[in-house]
Specification:
This protein is mainly alpha-helical and about 220 residues long. Helix content is about 75%, strand content about 5%. The chain contains 8 helices and 2 strands, in the order αββααααααα. Strands 1-2 form a two-stranded antiparallel sheet. A hairpin with a 5-residue loop joins β1 and β2.
Length: about 220
């Protein structure tokens, strides 16, 4: 699996984010701070010096890009790696976009933009949809996919589990994006999203076990 092109894209995006951070911070007063954390009601409750706050999403993007690039070299099941390439790329691209959205949220007060946590919800939802769309195309591996003892040891179990998991994750992603635009208290949105992501994460695991148990008789 060739990751060089995507690694270059990741580096360029991180560099652009760093440039944007310097540009925004340069227009602020000395000692200005920007939000880096929001509570359950959507209100900023932690702040950091403007430049540091704006730079950390770029740093995380670059760090995670390095980890994604390393996965193909670390995967023991090299002969199956190409089958999961689409899933790895989707997760990688989705994380890059999510970090861009996060930086825009942090920069919003400095630029006079009225951007709330809804933008982050859209990013999370898009990430779930992208991963869900690629899940059914993946094949057993130790670093990518829904890794349970039953999926890794049985290709049929892996395929069936990832087909179901992909549908659930895409549904959860679409509902998360929808939740960003539905007029509701932020706490209700958070509860719904936690519920959706929990279902998307846990149901495929139990389904994988159920398939194994039925096959074992």
């Amino acid at each position: 699996m060739n990751v060089r092109g995507l690694l270059w894209v990741n580096g360029l995006i991180a560099a652009a984010m760093a440039g944007f951070a310097w540009w925004v911070a340069a227009g602020l007063a000395s000692g200005a701070e920007l939000p880096i954390h929001w509570n359950a009601t959507g209100q900023a409750d932690r702040f950091a010096p403007a430049l540091a706050a704006l730079l950390w999403p770029a740093g995380i993007s670059l760090l995670l890009g390095g980890l994604f690039a390393a996965i193909p070299r670390l995967e023991p099941l090299q002969h199956r790696l190409e089958g999961s390439a689409a899933l790895l790329r989707s997760a990688w691209i989705g994380i890059m976009l999510l970090m861009v959205f996060l930086q825009l949220m942090i920069a919003a007060p400095a630029l006079g933009w009225n951007i709330g946590t809804e933008l982050l919800l859209v990013g999370i939802g898009a990430l779930l949809v992208m991963i869900g769309d690629s899940l059914p195309k993946s094949r057993p591996g130790f670093f990518v996919g829904i890794r349970t003892p039953w999926t890794i040891s049985d290709t049929d179990n892996w395929i069936a589990t990832h087909r179901l998991g992909g549908k659930i994750m895409m549904g959860a992603g679409c509902l998360t994006v929808l939740a960003a635009f539905v007029p509701a208290p932020p706490t209700a949105r958070i509860a719904v999203i936690i519920g959706l992501t929990s279902i998307a994460a846990l149901v495929p695991v139990f389904y994988s076990w159920w398939l194994w148990r039925n096959k074992a008789g």
